[in-house]
Amino acid sequence: MSDDLYIGLMSGTSADGVDAVLVQFIQHEPLRMRIIGHHSQSFSNDLRASIHSFRTSGSNELERLGHLDRQLGDIFAEVVNALLVQSGHDSADIRAIGSHGQTIRHQPTGTHPFTVQIGDPNTIAERTGITTVSDFRRRDVAAGGQGAPLVPAFHQALVSATQKNTAIINIGGIANITVLRSGDEPRGWDTGPGNNLMDGWIQRHKSARLDTDGAWAATGIINKTLLNTLLADDYFGRSAPKSTGPETFNLEWLDSFLSGEERPEDVQRTLIALTATTIAHALNAEGVEQSFVCGGGAFNALLTEELSQQLDGSLRSTQELGVHEQLMEAAAFAWLAAQRLASKPGNVPSATGASGLRILGAIYAP
Questions:
Q1: Per-residue model confidence (pLDDT) at position 253
Q2: Pick the CATH number of 152-321 from 3.30.420.40, 3.40.640.10, 2.60.40.1930, 3.30.413.10
């Protein structure tokens, strides 16, 4: 892996766009890396709606899925090619792309557990001329795991030198955490809603994609009765390993607890409290001394303030670890691609619940 260049692609459950990061891995153990460049592209409202439409079953699904798979593959390839131009590199310089894909359905429990990510890797490899590694999650599911979270191994490599109980918090559409203790296997799980409920709620009432800095939420007050009702959901009491998605935590779920008399801004403020409380409850129970936050929620000032107040330990940005808040997961999938090409495992069974270590991802040659 020494001195190799990799590109990581990430589009999260919020489906607001794709992030690409160009990473140089200088040394593997302990991990030393350098972020050389990054590029992002937002999704149109129509594309976001198409992605979100797959959260539940609908008509003509197979036809729509095929078109969306190719459309996203084209977009991911465009983002990679733009990053190459921007960074002054060409395809021959890049060892591989690690593409997470866009999750459209995640059901890791039941008789036939499954998880589906799309964004055709054949198209990415064809249009970029770069070896592409994708389909990271399904091997872990086949081994009895949740297929998520997959970033704890990367987080462990990134902060391996610390002696403190440390957490990395990713607040995307769904919030997830990695807990790192010296000498122990990393643990990680989805704590519950991240930004997805807040984004959906402000979209419904203000026709805005997001509540910048929690400004609208700040005009409301926490509805403690509603908050306690939401916190009573069975998911929050389950033991890890566990993972979830917008199939569970969505506006329909929220609506089922509302009387219709609540002020919208109070609901928004309560949703911030829900995200912060579920994260803090999980980390405080683990005795975490320091936490680093990343993901879109890291830019919501009211959310991070609420979270900092509830955490027993300190809260800082992942920029202190050398990774911008928006690029952590994309960098992780660049690293997972490198793990795949080296035939090294990419999952952490203590985080996903898989029966053992597994080599993750399928390789698509250019």
A1: 97
A2: 3.30.420.40
Question: What architecture (CATH level 2) is domain 4-146+328-364?
Answer: 2-Layer Sandwich (3.30)
What is the rounded CA–CA span in Å between residue 148 and residue 35? 24
Spatial CB neighbours of 271, under 8 Å, sequence gap ≥ 6: 193, 197, 198, 201, 217, 254
> Which of 286, 14, 38 has its CA nearest to residue 167?
286
Burial (CB < 10 A; 0-12, 13-18, 19+), residue 274, is: buried
279: tokens are 């994260």
- Residue 170 structure tokens: 């990713």
The average pLDDT across 221-240 equals: 97
For residues 177 and 279, the answer to whether their CB atoms sit within 8 Å is: yes
* Burial of 15 per CB tally in 10 Å (0-12, 13-18, 19+): buried
**8 A C-beta contact, residue 13 and residue 245:** yes
Amino acid at 337: A
pTM: 0.92
Cis upstream peptide for 152 (omega within 30°): no
> How far does CA 322 lie from the centroid of its chain?
18
Q: Say if residue 59 is exposed, middle or buried (CB neighbours under 10 Å; 0-12, 13-18, 19+).
A: exposed
pLDDT per residue as tens digits for the range 2-45: 458 999 999 988 888 999 999 998 866 667 889 999 999 999 99
Q: Tell me how many degrees the CA angle 283-325-41 measures, rounded to the nearest 5.
A: 135
> Does 104 score more than 60 pLDDT?
yes
What are the distances in angstroms from CA 274 to CA 5, 240, 255? Answer: 39, 19, 15
Do the Cβ atoms of 268 and 198 come closer than 8 Å? Answer: yes
> How does strand 96-107 pair with strand 132-134?
parallel
Residues 39, 79 contacting (CB under 8 angstroms): yes
Q: Is 363 helix (H, G, I), strand (E, B) or coil?
A: strand
